[in-house]
Amino acid sequence: MGVVNVTPDSFSDGGQYFEADAAVEHGLALMEEGAAILDVGGESTRPGAAPVPEEEELRRVLPVVGPLAAAGNRVSIDTSKVAVARAALDAGATIVNDVSAFRFDPGLAGLVAERQAHCCLMHMLGEPRTMQEDPRYEDVVSEVKAFLEERLDFAVGEGVPEERVWLDPGIGFGKTVGHNLELLRRLDEIVAIGRPVVVGTSRKSFLGKLAGGKPEGERLPGTIATNVLALERGASVFRVHDVAPVLDALTIAAATVNR
Ligand code: HH2
After folding, report:
1. Which residue of 62, 130, 156, 213 lies most exposed, with the fewest beta carbons within 10 A?
2. Using a 6 Å cutoff on CB, does residue 128 contact ligand 1?
3. What is the pLDDT of residues 177-207, one digit of tens each?
4. Given ligand 1 and candidates 26, 38, 239, which is best to mutate, with the most ligand atoms within 8 Å of its CB?
């Protein structure tokens, strides 16, 4: 899954593809690199990010989703808002990637059901504005697992067939470096829920911290290492900014994993 951020403030590529044309071009390039899905987002979820009004999010993502879907790409819309998801599905997206797992806008579940879309439900502690303020868990893996099981039940209760739900432990969303590492170390426990697991470690700050303070642009080795380990532990979808090098690494890793 290649990341197409149409935002001025995303943590690693904010502003780079803020114009629709540049974002479409970037998405097409990621597809050329081998991305199976393009994840289009118009609202940064970096720690402390301010929410984006609905009209502005629509203005950002719609001119990008349409052309990418029309070019034959599988497009997911990274949003927590039902109006944005509806317009993106109308424009050709087929997956709703909701970092709030239907908590911020419960109506999103009904929309996904009605449109027979797929969805990715992600764990986050609280909301982006405050999630990194001293996050605490008794046992991060069992709490994230219980949360994802509860959100899966909610989605199914709202009419989304279980087969259309993917789950994501939400690396970096209300987690310390230790929490992220524990989730990656014990990812098989999340995989055991029985739904495809999505992981998003790409360029995230814990990789920079672990490598002695590397900035976003120097986190590709950490991104590759964590995605390869996630593959080995059963993850199915890898959300990344650098599609070509990660795909290379995953192809080789997959060839050595005995499933
Ligand atoms: N991470 C980000 C955004 N969306 N969705 C899922 N399912 N999993 C993730 O780990 C995930 C996500 C954050 O990365 P990015 O889009 O690069 O940054 P920003 O939120 O600042 O736009």
Report:
1. 213
2. no
3. 999 999 999 999 999 999 999 999 999 999 9
4. 239
